[in-house]
């Protein structure tokens, strides 16, 4: 047979095989799920993955919804209205203590021993006169909610400085109002996340001073700061979906790593944050897309028990769903 | 033929039936997210002292805001109802301000008054003001024209008409508005405590939510419900004696 | 002065007061923006599709819940007026529920209703029904005995008297209750959207606060006020259609 005919025949064969394969892939319906989260900077990789079609590419049909409170997210997943959720690990530990059917299967950020790559800070205003954590005694501190990661952060860091959490006055103020509270003197110190941390940092009226960062006081501990969790029974039955979610998020994070300015651009567009605030944000926003092990959850459980925030025993293995 | 002292048997039977149904439903669903009545009762008794303290704090704030609203809005409402010229200008402003939700007002209140009781009481005042004001205005306006004509024909002055005819005639609806204002005051006291959470029942509910103590949260809700029932019963008693003439007259319509 | 002149005058007065407050500098301008900044934010809002979707959703939710609450509230009150045992059976439950903040129920309700339209319908229905039911019960109790007796001499049965004599007479007070509940429906919709929503004006409000867009936050508060006026105007129009004869009578008498 002449070479051109052979080439044509082979190409045709290849095309037929390719067509058959793609047809088979298309006949497999995408896995549909609802993913609920809070609109924080840490959630951006998931939103970005959705926008870029990375989930779709993985054969997932994701309905992404943003809620405004942690309890709403957890209730949504626990009740089956959403299958996957994004939250801090602390409420999940409390949920497990109450036998709620939710488990952590992936993380978005981890603690860091470096000390400057963190996602939550304790800051004080200049006029409060607070120079370090031990000055918090008798002052007014603002938290976004009681019984959560914020309270744990304060307790941990204050205990490390030898000061009791109850020696300070606590007020609960949503993150957006913390800047106003600090500026008007309603609060002397607060626990904050981005973008409020930068906004407070650059405010000339507050002249915010960073007291500490990271939830736990012990820098040597490794634990997740932001996680993805799933409803127990759905997760066990749909492990493939969890793997695909992980890959979709990993693809988004790969984009961020390749182009350091991408994250800031996404923040300005999606969050509609002012360019000035975004440009002043810390450079050290490192995501860590690593499924946590039980040993990563243990430091949080221990800390919560130590500070008597957690009154029921929780086994760290019970908090994780191993995605095989 | 008023039935003051007769015990509310239908009410009791119905309520107990509902509780029974709740307990049965919870047992059949058997999920940590759906505690039954007995589990909630247990949480209630375990945390009784704390619940009572927090409820007290919420009530005191609610009462302060309500008292302020009553003192300011009741006379204002009657005046506006009787003076249509002013009413026409003031009412659009009322309608502009009224639907602002307390949850949205709280950050604004915080800007002016910090996060303590003053901020919460101002939000409570703001929210309780409107049922009282609106019912007072509407009630005064709806005074039966026959009564007004009689008053005018026997030569009563404008203020005498207001005091001797408007006020008693409008009483039933005004009292209805006051009762609503009271309910709103308690409601907003709890809601404001959920946002500016320092203490009180709102704070208690938030903590229970955060820690998935659903039975505890329901126990808090049950506490609020029981207290509101108690307050309503007392207010109804007062209302019944205040408006005895009204009830006697209209009791005949039930025959 | 034309009919729309008076609301405009009071709006203008309100804005002037606001600007004076801002310029007194009690609170820094970044947290309490002046009228020009808010107007600018409002114009931007009006140009965005997200805003109009949110507006439609919030209004639809509020009105839907309000209509359902009106139907069930008035229906139950009619039942209770005809069969006193129903009213007495419901009485403890109603008094238990009337002061429960809808906000406190939201996280628990997500379990039962999910995050969709039924959650909002339930929360808003819950927020509105008690006020409407209580107003209707109170209004139906206030029937004029003369009217009832006349109807009976004409041979009307109990249901006929209820629907054709007592209900029409009760409309003014019932519509006052609906008017109050209408504001409550908007508040509940916004609260639910702030706590558990992913769209709607309440969600946009929280979002603008979260992203530190304060002038936009105040512009949205202004929009809430306008929505309230809209809803109120709609309720008043409905009242005129159903019970207009009553107002006309009163107007004739005070002429």
Report on the architecture of this protein:
The complex is a heterotrimer of chains A (324), B (255) and C (255). Helix content of chain A is 44%, strand content 18%. Chain A has 14 helices and ten strands. The radius of gyration of chain A is 23 Å and the shape is globular. Chain B is mostly helical and 255 residues long. Chain B has a single domain (56-241), classed as MetI-like fold, CATH 1.10.3720.10. Chain C has a single domain (35-254), classed as MetI-like fold (Orthogonal Bundle), CATH 1.10.3720.10. Chain C has ten helices and no strands. Chain C is globular. The mean pLDDT of chain C is 83. Chains B and C meet through helix 1, helix 4, helix 5, helix 6 and helix 7 of B and helix 1, helix 4, helix 5, helix 6 and helix 8 of C.
Binned, the helix content of chain A reads 40-55%
Reported CATH architecture of the largest domain in chain A: 3-Layer(aba) Sandwich
SS summary, helix count of chain B: 11
Going across the biggest sheet of chain A, name each strand in turn.
2-1-3-10-4
| Multimeric organization | heterotrimer
Which term fits the overall shape of chain A? globular
Short description:
The complex is a heterotrimer of chains A (324), B (255) and C (255). Chain A is α/β, with parallel strands linked by helices and 324 residues long.
